[in-house]
Structures are given as structure tokens and as C-alpha cells.
Amino acid sequence: MNTQEITLNMGPQHPSTHGVFRLILKLDGEVATGGTSVIGYLHRGLEKLAESRTYPQFIPYTDRLDYLASMSNNLAYVQAVEKLMGIEVPERAEYIRVIFAELQRIASHMIGVGTFVMDLGAVTAVFYPFIHREKVIDLFSMTCGGRLTYNYMRIGGVSHDLPWGFVPRLYYFLDYMRTAIDEYHQLVTGNEIFLSRTKGVGIITPEDARSYGLSGPNLRGSGVRYDVRRAFPYGIYDRFEFNVPWGETGDCFDRYMVRVQEMEESVRIIEQAVRDMPEGPVMAANVPKVIKPPAGEVYHSTENPKGELGFYIVSDGSTKPYRIHIRRPSFVNLAVLDKAIIGWKVADVIAILTSLDFVLGEVDG
Amino acid sequence: MVNNIISVLKEKFPEATIQEDIVVVPFQSLLSLIELLHGEGFDYLQDITAVDWPDRFTLVYQVCSYHLSTRLEVKTDIPKENPSAPSLTPYWESANWLEREIYDMFGIKFTGHPNMKRILLDEDFSGYPLRKDYQ
């Protein structure tokens, strides 16, 4: 019987592609023999825009890169500018930054994990993470007024101090979070159907992971123990005790498990940060009113929930950057998809795609 | 860690200017420098980008090592007319999409690239937006 390869278009509008992403699949029956990713539907020209904005004016743009991890994007950018200008951030601001970055990691992984399980068909499983995420967003919203994009970090510190009542609510959230993760383990992690759909599916070998420049949970799921917070500690991350979880096989289950365990570790970090946080100013005293970094360049990267976010800034001594390049983890991570789906059925293609946890805002910039 | 590799580079590439972790090489030495770094355990090409100066382009590579926790920035200049550079896809797969983005935005072609096409902008788009003279 003659068979033929068909080309199937998972078009830019598709409920399972998590944004405007196009995947042109070549199928032999139901098995994918190849795929071509087409991106750029959400390209907004942020790097070009940066050249006509002042340094502080660019901070809200960083919110909209990976719009599920705005705090972390803010942090990477302001730390890059501070490195360029040699500004030291006060202690209290450093602790606040860590608390918010780790809360953001929890919020982002909630979506990553929730949508992953939803795409396998267990739609109920996405509602629990979104409920937990609401608690994090409530904390953010009471501090800076935003639910998704915050514009909270500033060059030299944070915009303003924590509001009254924040710390008790944070403690309540941390206790709640521990039971939430246990509940999730009970519901999902041991589930037979979940395991058979994710164990051994979409294996990315460590060699491939390294060559494709993966970072974040995608990389650590394949067994490569690289975390920017340990390799190039930024801020005050070297003061905290936490484990970096990693997987053995590099399948979808490992990437899922790494994200869940990272949330547990984030809770540990937040507890330590709240315990040790001193009183004091939240903005460096010597930051000039007009930000004019000296001519030069800097590259700074941080461990975002999606991977390693890097900012390369070239300054010509004026108030506007000469060039800003954003090393976007979702962009680099997504390249491995074309290889990882070969040999898997259509349903598994969706599972592998979602397990990479990318955000189109960051892929396209 | 980074000091070891810097002394190796100073020895093998006297024409390079090295300051902390930034290595500036003339264009002819780029490929052999990359070859050396790739062989010395630098298995992570973190980023490639370009900067548009009035008289030249500068290519900036962030070459890192996962297990050595080291990062080096390699810079080289290329002329504005017919800008091109060798593709690093034989060494690291991450170069594939990163180089396509630079071609898309600056028009710098990478010889030997398996798929030298635009990646973010439309196929029919004309012009290279991140160039300073783009309207």
C-alpha cells in the first residue's frame, strides 16, 4: 500500500501552541517525521525601540518580554545597567528583589506545569495552579499595583518599599504553598496515565541540550546541572541555601518534575530572605536623576524561570542606549523542538512542545 | 578557571586584545579561536549579536562552558560592504537560530549556514531594521 507524507499546519492560532506560534509538521500517518517552527508573529521590535528610550523608560518594555515572569525580566535589565554604572544596591532592596524573583518563579512554573498537564488532556489540573498563582499575584498587586506586568524594579533598587501587611500575608502564602505542592503531587505526579504519557516522551539528550544552548528546567531535566544562580551568582543569591533540582532522563516527566521541585526550593529561598531581610532604604543614594552610563558595554544574565535571560547593553555615554540585545531563553530553547518531535505521534508533539515551557513574547521579542 | 583559558589565548593569539573576559580578535583569527574554545570544553554558545557602528559591524559572541562556569565574550569587526561571517553551526546548534536573527535584523550573511533565511520578520520583508540607517 502506498503511503504519503502529509504536511500539517499547526497554525498561528491554535489552543495548544501557547501563543502565536506556527509549527509545520510533516506526518507519516500519525507519526511526526519532521517539523519546521515559524516564529515572529509577536515580534514588536523591542531592541530597536530601546535605542530611542532612556534607560529607565525601557524597564516597562522588559515586563512584556516573558510576560509571565515580569519581575525576573526587570531584575536582569536593571542589574545589567547597575553593573555598567557601578551602582550598589542597598541590602533591603536586594532581599526584596530575591523575594519577588522567587515568587515570580513560583508563579511562572505554576503556569508551566498547569498548562503542561492541561495539554495532556487533564484540564482540571490547570485550575489548581491558577488558584495558587492568584495568591502570588495578590502579593504583587498589593505591592506595585500590577497583576502581570509590574515595572517594580528600578536602576539602583526597587520602586518603593513593601506595603504594610505584606510580610504576614507572605508567611500565610508560604504555608499554603507547601500543602499546595503536596496536593499536586498526589493528584498528578503519581497518576498512571500521566506517567505513561510523559515518561520516556520527548527525550532530549544532554549532548543535544548543550549543543542547542538550552537553559533552565529544560536543560536541567536532561541532567546538565547548570544554574546561573550557582554558576554566576548575581545579587545576593550566594547567601541562600537551596538545591538545584535536575532530572536523569531528559523526558517530559523530568522537565515537569524539575519545575515542581524548583517551586519547593523557591519557597525555601523566600523563607530565608524574609527571615534575614534588614530594615533600610530601598533605593541607592548615589543614583543620579538622569541615568547616563559611561560609554562601554556589559553583558549580564540571570536565571529566569524559563532559562538564562541575558542583556547585552552598549552605551555611548548618552541617556539612551546605543544597542540593547536581549538573549531570550525561550527563543534559544525553542530551536530544539524541530528535533525533539521526530518520531512521536501528534499527541506527544503537543506534550513535548508544552514541556519546553516557552512564551511567545520572549521568543519573538 | 577563566584565567587558565586567558593565558592559553594570550599565547596562541598574540594579535588579540584581551581585557578581563572580553577577547577582541581580528576577523581572520575568529574561526581558529572558536575552534580552540570549542575544543577546550566551551560547550555553550550562549548568544551571538551584532552592533552597527558608523564604519563597521561588530559581532559579539558569548561563549561559555556549562561545567566550568566560565564565560568569554569574543568580539570581531566586519566591514559594512557585503557583511558576512562564517557560520558556527558546525560547532554549536544554538548558532542556527541566533545567526538567522542577526541576518534578519542586520543583513549579515553567515556562510555555511544550513538555512540562511529570515526568522522573525516576514519572508518578503525588505530592509534590515536594526541597522542605524533603516527608515
What are the key terms here?
heterodimer; A: about 375 residues; alpha+beta; Cytochrome-c3 Hydrogenase, chain B; 3-stranded antiparallel sheet; 15 helices; 8 strands; about 45% helix; about 15% strand; globular; B: about 140 residues; alpha/beta; Beta Polymerase, domain 2; 5-stranded mixed sheet; two-stranded parallel ribbon; 3 helices
How would you sum up this structure, described in words?
The complex is a heterodimer of chains A (365) and B (135). Chain A has 365 residues and is of the alpha+beta class. Chain A has 15 helices and 8 strands. Chain A has one domain: Cytochrome-c3 Hydrogenase, chain B (Orthogonal Bundle). In chain A, the strands form 3 sheets. In chain A, strands 1-2-3 form a 3-stranded antiparallel sheet. In chain A, strands 6-7-8 form a 3-stranded antiparallel sheet. In chain A, strand 4 and strand 5 form a beta hairpin. The longest helix of chain A is centred in the first third of the chain and has 29 residues. Chain B is 24% helix and 29% strand. The longest helix of chain B is centred in the last third of the chain and has 12 residues. Classes of the chains: A alpha+beta (365), B alpha/beta (135).
